[in-house]
Amino acid sequence: MAYDEIIYEVTDGIATITLNRPDKLNASTFKMEREIRDAFVAAGRDDGVRVIVLTGAGRGFCAGFDTSSLAEAANESQGALDGEQLGTHVEDVFGTPHPDYLGRYSYFPSIPKPIIAAINGPAVGLGMIMAMFCDVRLASDSAKIGAPFTRLGLVAEHGISWLLPRLVGLSNALDLLFTAQPVNAEEASRIGLVSHVYPAADFRAKVAEYAGHLARNVSPRALRITKAQVYADQYRTLDEATLIADEEMDKSLATEDFREGINHFLEKRQARFTGR
């Protein structure tokens, strides 16, 4: 696929979406947002894709929103700015996710594949928000992550006030939002903002190894259902979540992937999951 501000590549079941404005530390624009959405939807629809990696070109992940592109707003409908177009597009393709997962950035959980944020450098403002809405965050030891909103006279944007406490706890979330100070990768790992930190020199290889494990060794059907369960269960009681899990477990027992999961384990060979 040809894009102007991102690169989209698929190799060995891994779709890599690279924010590609390295001279601007991959600062986001409205065009980049549309291209990211389009690439996510394409990866979600592609049976050959089992996992998605979101990363940045050059030395940055994303330095926030490029304020010089605000002039584009004059040519944008309000729907494009508040996320309605994003939500409609995802909903049309993947059914009807919870309405909270249809916003400008909060649609990431509606994509039926695992999304890994490979934070290779600064992830600030909207860059942090995009990383937070990914399913798993892997960071280079050179990464910096921050929410500078209060220093700019702004508030917690795009649902991060809902999401961040769920990731790092209420006190850590308020500390990050109040002080507007970025944290390094080590501190981000300590508070649970990222799952793993790797040396910068090995970062790309480590991300490929992690994504490759999901692509090769895990049932794509199980990943899809598990992701849907986790996000939907944020709005369910324990009893509701348990009942649905029991129903999904019964369905899983009748699948090709379950049979393959047992067979490859007993035969001590590489799994050959089909997603069915």
UniProtKB/TrEMBL annotation:
Its EC number is 4.2.1.17. It comes from the Bacteria. GO terms for molecular function: enoyl-CoA hydratase activity. Keywords: Lyase. Gene3D superfamilies: 2-enoyl-CoA Hydratase, Chain A, domain 1. Pfam families: ECH_1. Belongs to the enoyl-CoA hydratase/isomerase family. This is Enoyl-CoA hydratase.
